[in-house]
From TrEMBL:
The lineage of its organism: Bacteria, Pseudomonadati, Bacteroidota, Flavobacteriia, Flavobacteriales. The chain crosses the membrane at residues 83-102, 109-126. It comes from Hyunsoonleella aestuarii. This is Glycosyltransferase family 4 protein. InterPro entries: Glyco_trans_1 (IPR001296), Glycosyltransferase_grp1 (IPR050194). The keyword Transmembrane applies. Residues 231-358 form the Glycosyl transferase family domain.
Length: 388
């Protein structure tokens, strides 16, 4: 068996696209005759506190599904304070260095980025002609931070650009989850070996529900995911026209209290907040809805929300409100409707044009069938192991 180490900031029992992506990668490699081990912080995301079973521990090692998981100490925080968030990244970087000093590291290492500083630490300390370092880039930092308003074009931003460039140069192979990420990397390093590795799902898919009655002519739109600044769900709640829709929300995050307060103080907004539920339960709930919405507050170059592929597997029609490459995927595979990112008038216009006659069982089955054919994780993994 080939040994491979995966270094990541996120891993189950943490929830979200990042932890799911790495878990499916680890599981897929293990099933293809790789001896997989994971280096990750003690679970803390998205609450910003170490999960109850792991509190008071400096390190925790376990074996789950034949994968060895080393969980290292981190100063956990989800604060909006930039210093505290930086401290959290640096603390995990120190834990990584400590681990590197006292443990044998395999010849193949997969490193998740972002966070940039964590990836930099791993690449800097593990550089070796005899070791293959594979960088898995899921978002383009610091560029994404600039587009989100997290950074300004200052000395700090330029420093992070140099860190980004160092990471790309010192990786032997770069996995990018979008064509835009690959293009960005190739613009800096034309000869760098790259591989398009989409965040395809892997779960038991329930069949679409054949028929649902529409109450008062309204159809039900659902959002499920992180209630963070980038998603802009609080603004979405305020801007939607509820004349023919009811909005249902699942998830947790920085905007949760604001959304709960908005619902409580505005009875005219037809919104139902369900809180956070486990993923396996969420899938059974999602197929009860007519349509889902995938929003981003601003277009983020390189970003393709993994929800696109997950919801396609559920046969759930989508309204995509994020711009960029996601628009093209929705249109190419006929997965739903696209509204201009940031243009809430256009979004409401698109919603008003959707007929309940379009949200039929046959359409949902076509979406699911397309997903099984075009977003196949096993086929993608079989191609990847030839590169690794």
């Amino acid at each position: 068996m080939k040994d491979v180490l995966i270094i990541t900031n996120y891993y189950p029992p943490e929830t979200g696209a990042a932890s799911n992506r790495i878990f499916h990668l680890a599981e897929g490699l293990q099933q293809r005759n790789f001896n997989v081990s994971i280096l990750t912080p003690l679970p803390n995301y998205p609450q910003g506190r170490i999960f109850e079973p792991y509190r008071g521990k400096f390190k925790h090692t376990s074996k789950e599904k034949n994968i060895t998981i080393h969980r290292l100490w981190i100063y956990a925080s989800n604060s909006k304070n930039k210093f505290l968030r930086l401290l959290a990244m640096v603390s995990y970087s120190f834990s990584l260095v400590w681990y590197f000093c006292f443990n044998k590291i395999p010849k193949k290492v997969i490193i998740q980025s972002p966070p940039l500083l964590v990836a930099f630490t791993a690449l800097f300390f593990l550089r070796s002609k005899n070791r293959k370092l594979i960088l898995n880039v899921s978002d383009l930092w610091p560029l994404a931070g600039l587009e989100l308003g997290v950074f300004k074009e200052s000395f700090g931003y330029k420093l992070l650009q140099r860190v980004e460039s160092f990471n790309y140069k010192n990786a032997n192979l770069i996995l990018g989850q979008s064509e835009e990420i690959i293009t960005h990397i190739k613009s800096q390093l034309p000869d760098k070996q790259t591989f398009l590795y989409r965040n395809f799902p892997n779960f038991e898919t329930p069949p679409p529900i054949p028929k649902r009655e529409f109450t008062n002519g309204k159809f039900k739109i659902v959002y499920a995911g992180l209630l963070g600044v980038a998603q802009g769900i609080y603004k979405l709640c305020k801007e939607l026209n509820y004349s023919n829709i009811q909005l249902h929300i699942y998830g947790a995050g920085a905007e949760q209290k604001m959304i709960e307060g908005l619902i409580k103080s505005n009875n005219d907004l037809d919104i139902v907040y369900h809180g956070e539920v486990p993923r396996e339960i969420l899938h059974k709930e999602l197929i009860k809805y007519d349509i889902t919405i995938i929003p981003l507050l601003n277009r983020i170059y390189g970003s393709v929300p993994s929800k696109i592929f997950e919801y396609a597997y559920l046969g759930l029609p989508m309204i995509y409100f994020g711009g960029g490459e996601g628009d093209d995927i929705i249109k190419t595979y006929r997965l739903g409707w696209v509204a201009d990112v940031g243009n809430y008038n256009h979004l409401n216009k698109i919603i008003n044009q959707i007929s309940t006659n379009q949200l039929v069982y046959d359409y949902k089955c076509k979406i699911q069938s397309e997903a099984f054919k075009s977003f196949n994780l096993d086929k993608q993994l079989n191609k990847l192991i030839l590169e690794v």
